[in-house]
UniProtKB/TrEMBL annotation:
This is RpiR family transcriptional regulator. It comes from Bogoriella caseilytica. Pfam families: HTH_6, SIS. It comes from the Bacteria. Residues 11-87 form the HTH rpiR-type domain. One of its GO terms (biological process) is carbohydrate derivative metabolic process.
Length: 292
């Protein structure tokens, strides 16, 4: 299934740019990073000033704007200015960045992390492809077997979804080890589902089993922050999160929260297909551990 790109005005532009970072050339990436770091400042800069600050050329800035779907740099500046205005209005008195600094107080740390994580949830909900979500739910509901793949921080949502699907009586298993994942997906085929979670979309320990599963005919789903990543392209369906990397990897924290939103949407979507069966399964699993 092809993931449809969101409309320019439907999702915060900075979030979209962050999702494209791994696919940009070095010069365009410097422009993107300048936009992400301070979109309001870029909105006030001329194309020459921005190009000089990013150690690149004006044509590169124009190419970057066109890659985002704009006619040119003026249209990019206008959208950045509008986004910055909306941010200031929505989050008056709150930090407009999740970037942490060694001089931050604990109050500032709490405020910045809350901001980064709440924005990740809001932006992910806004850009989540509903048709891709529906396809994932349908495939899982009909699957004889479901495998969840994730390593490092991305293992958390994979394990969480695996446990939730087990409580519905579905044959689900999660794998945080590449060898175990490769062994399991080598036995999958048509009708089975393999869900691979990777914020960057470039984790080979997740990509390799996802590619093998697809070769064997299983339906493959990517959960990633980067819609043009190798993982997204290797899978049949992509469910895209929206979070920004920041200092001290608070972006990794926000990405985990965004991934958990995705897997919760998948779980609830499956559960709602047959509420009577869902309630019976949940009641049975609850009784089984009630006295432990």
């Amino acid at each position: 299934m092809t993931l449809e790109a969101p409309q320019i005005d439907s999702v915060n532009l900075v979030t979209r740019i962050a999702g494209l970072l791994p696919e940009l050339r070095p010069a365009e990436r410097r422009v993107a990073e300048a936009v992400i770091a301070n979109p309001a400042e870029v909105a006030r800069e001329s194309i020459t000033t921005l190009a000089e600050r990013c150690h690149t050329s004006a044509p590169t800035v124009v190419r970057f704007a066109k890659r985002l779907g704009f006619a040119g740099y003026p249209q990019l500046r206008l959208t950045l200015a509008k986004d910055a205005g909306r941010e200031e209005g929505r989050h008056a008195g709150e930090p407009l960045s999740g970037t942490l600094d060694a001089s931050d107080t604990l109050d500032e740390v709490v405020a910045k992390l809350a901001y980064a994580e709440s924005r990740a949830l809001e932006d992910t909900a806004a850009m989540l492809d509903r048709s891709a979500l529906a396809s994932t739910v349908e495939a899982i509901a009909a699957a004889p077997r479901i495998d969840l793949l994730g390593v490092g921080a991305s293992a958390v949502p994979a394990i969480d979804l695996g446990q939730k699907l087990l409580r519905l009586g579905l044959a689900a298993a999660h794998h945080t080890d590449r060898h175990a994942a490769m062994t399991s997906v080598s036995l999958r085929g048509e009708g089975d589902v393999v869900i691979a979670v990777s914020h960057s979309g470039s984790t080979t320990d997740v990509i390799a089993p996802a590619e093998l599963a697809r070769e064997h005919g299983a339906t493959t789903v990517a959960v990633t922050n980067h819609p043009e990543s190798r993982l997204a392209k290797a899978c049949d369906v992509a469910l895209v999160t929206a979070s920004r990397e920041t200092t001290f990897r608070s972006g990794a924290m926000a990405s985990r929260i965004a991934q958990l939103l995705i897997v919760d949407c998948v779980f609830v979507g499956v559960a709602l297909r047959d509420m009577e069966a869902t309630q019976q399964a949940l009641d049975a699993s609850f009784r089984a551990v009630a006295d432990l």
